[in-house]
Amino acid sequence: MKKLFPKGLLAIALCCSAGIRVSAQQKDTVPPTQPPANPPAVAPINMGVPQQYEIADITVAGTQYLDKTLLLSLSGLSVGDKVTYPGGDQFTKAIQSLWSQRLFADVTIYVTKIEDNKIWLEIGLTEMPRMSSFSFKGIKKTEADDIATKAGLRKGSVITQALKQNVIGVVHKFYADKGFGNATVKIEERVDSGQVNSRQVVFNVTKGSKVRTENINIVGNYNIADGKIKKKMKGTKERSRFTLHPDIEHVYVDSLAEADDFWQTYGFLQPTRALEKLDPYFRFKLFSSAKFNENKYLEDKGKVVGLYNSRGYRDAVIVKDTVYKTRSQNLNIDMQISEGKKYYFGDITWKGNTRYSDSVLTRILGIKKGDVYNLELLEKRIGKQMSQEGGDISGYYMDYGYLFFQIDPVEIGIRGDTIDYEIRLREGPQATIKEVRIAGNEKTNEHVIRRELRTIPGEKFSRQDLIRSNREIANLGFFNPEKIGMNPVPNVQDGTVDIDYTVEEKANDQLELSAGWGGYIGLTGTLGVTFNNFSLRNIFRKETWDPLPSGDGQKLSVRISSNGKAYRSYNFSFTEPWLGGKKRNQFSVSFYSSYQNPYAYNDYYKLPGDTSRSTDGHFKVLGASVSLGKQLKWPDDYFTLIYSLNYQQYKLKNYNYFGIAGFENGTSNNVNVKLTLARSSVDQQIFPRSGSNFMLSAQYTPPYSLFNPDKDYSKEPASKQFNFIEYQKYRFNAEWYVPLSRPMGSDNKTFVLKVAAKFGYIGRYNNRTTLSPFGRFEMGGDGLSNFAIYDRDIISQRGYPVYYTSDPSINPENGQPANYSGFTVFNKFVMELRYPFSLNPSSTIFGLAFLEAANGYKDLNEYNPFRLRRSAGIGMRFYLPMFGLLGFDYGIGFDRLTPGGGLKDAAKFTFMLGFEPE
């Protein structure tokens, strides 16, 4: 048998053996469990002169898992190839190719036979062992799962040195980010006797103790105090440091328990709670993170220099900084700063501008001669980075199509502490939009997206149009608003720009399903489906049903609900947002019917012979509406005007829940026209960060009483007064969303302040009529538990149940007065601080803290906008595409607090399902 020579070496001493072996073996690997296949014995051959041979056959030995045909392909050798032996480099290249796959502990090529001009070869391989299982010891399962995912560990992977080093690196980074800078990993391999050439790998992880920053010592800072510099270093904080007793200077504590242990250890009786009273920030400081993270520290050093630059210290640098361990194995940081002198802006001149004059650009820039030098502010005002907020010079140019616009601030002179600037502009041509491409819409038809865009081929490019297009796509509700991409692709040669939009579809259809059987009660439950991206035109095309035809942006909703014999309702609605397909004309139709019998279960409860309990009574509502909304161009195109025609019929039989004497039987008809002027500029639907919503509506029934001015309708029996209901009704809602900080990192999370004000009034045309109980306002509760079948506007208030009087001193728990028929006037004010925990479209989650004040009034004479019920609390919202909005609030009604009572008596949980209550 001929053995080819080791990898990378020339063939030498070729005649000293019956053959030559060429092999390669990786160091630091587990020895193979099986030796390569034994080559057959052959007679010695004189190999003094290299000759060319044709490969007659190639076999592969020693593999358990890998495909032999693929290995032959990787080797580069094949039957029929010409090779030189001995001395040819084809064998070395074949070994190098196989070795580079990092799958083998040993690679060997054998010559098994030579006959005439033909040669037979065998490739002997020893595969690296495979990982039959892996586990982590010394850490939590959740941490182990996270590390395994980050490291890409999988059963069956080849165990290489690179795999081990990768796991060690992932573990170190994982725990370093959590403040454990001394984590160690020991890898243990055990032979798995149940599988060929396999190992069970155990990663023994020792996290060690957290590495904290004990002290940050700063020198050289004469003009900015230590505290302000350390406050800028948000990612690198000192460990909490307190003087717990005048005889002992400083100790370090991480918890209230440690502080209490300190007192006991040294025999002091002063409790930790007393220290909290002396220092109200004590508790907060205890739980501030002091863990050290090297990457955050590097960022913080840049922030320190940036702080100096923003104060005019242009030449400020960190001359030297040292991070070293203390006796407690924590860290100290010594930082030496060279501040340099303070600079001021001098003359600022403009060059290259034709679109705007110098005076206009100076006004936009907002920096005057003598202002403290601040390069960051200068670059922000000129718009080095395009921002959605606008207001910078680049934004003004790009709003008018100057996509190729460039701006550079250049220092042209330094006079003492004064820096003169020349701002050079290259306006370039106005770019024309050439092509608009859309990708990622797997379900939604392209025309649904394209009709929302403000960037139209053939028109001039505008940054504002691009931002507005993003908003319109997000507000469709069909796509993940965090993943909408907008990429202008300039074409310098012809002065045009292509725009690529990318979207990511998200589930937004909703299902509501519950059912039960209650014997005497009967069937109870709800079945409701809402398709938010429905397609009516494809209703007869079976291939488009999944489960219903979709993609045209229409909305279809069907809901059936039953509570046995006591209650049932049916609801249907359909909305076409672009009636005719040319303009944003929203057309909607709806139908609803409900039935309620409050006496349905009297038979079940009454005793034999009891005739006092009647079961003959009900309240039925039948309604339908049709509406048409039209987008306006003035005052701006955020406005919409909506016309709607509505009809409701109410049938009462022995139903005396309205607080109006004699109004227990009869039929009432309500025909009305409603006009709504609305404006919405919010950036998205689920978690708005900016923008506002305004709505002003007026609703009118025909003034029947004016047709017969001589008749006093108020003296008619109640059952006849409301045959045809008449009223005039006005509503006003306003909401603002204000981001309190810039989005933090790539996740776009930021605190958002929501402020809202609402007002409503319903009244008569004249004093000859009585205002019906329908259409009024019901205050308090959460909109779910309210008895809302009366056809009233439910104005919820967290922290309060439904209340029936305008006097805040009267506790709502005292019950409904006999003559209560609803409020005719209300106002409500809301303030919320919101923060998103997850912006994932499959589960959007955000928390909030709120303040609310509201009240309802019997009439305008009683109206007092300052006599309000007040509440505060916290809440959570969960938006799940299948179920819509879910949420709960824990509110405390301040006016429910009673002498001697606690917060528990004034607190109330409120819930919401499918919609945000008013």
TrEMBL record:
<keyword id="KW-0677">Repeat</keyword>
<dbReference type="InterPro" id="IPR039910">
    <property type="entry name" value="D15-like"/>
</dbReference>
<feature type="signal peptide">
    <location>
        <begin position="1"/>
        <end position="24"/>
    </location>
</feature>
<dbReference type="Pfam" id="PF07244">
    <property type="entry name" value="POTRA"/>
</dbReference>
<keyword id="KW-1134">Transmembrane beta strand</keyword>
<dbReference type="InterPro" id="IPR023707">
    <property type="entry name" value="OM_assembly_BamA"/>
</dbReference>
<dbReference type="InterPro" id="IPR034746">
    <property type="entry name" value="POTRA"/>
</dbReference>
<keyword id="KW-0812">Transmembrane</keyword>
<keyword id="KW-0998">Cell outer membrane</keyword>
<protein>
    <submittedName>
        <fullName>BamA/TamA family outer membrane protein</fullName>
    </submittedName>
</protein>
<keyword id="KW-0732">Signal</keyword>
<keyword id="KW-0472">Membrane</keyword>
<dbReference type="Pfam" id="PF01103">
    <property type="entry name" value="Omp85"/>
</dbReference>
<feature type="domain" description="POTRA">
    <location>
        <begin position="343"/>
        <end position="428"/>
    </location>
</feature>
<dbReference type="InterPro" id="IPR010827">
    <property type="entry name" value="BamA/TamA_POTRA"/>
</dbReference>
<dbReference type="InterPro" id="IPR000184">
    <property type="entry name" value="Bac_surfAg_D15"/>
</dbReference>
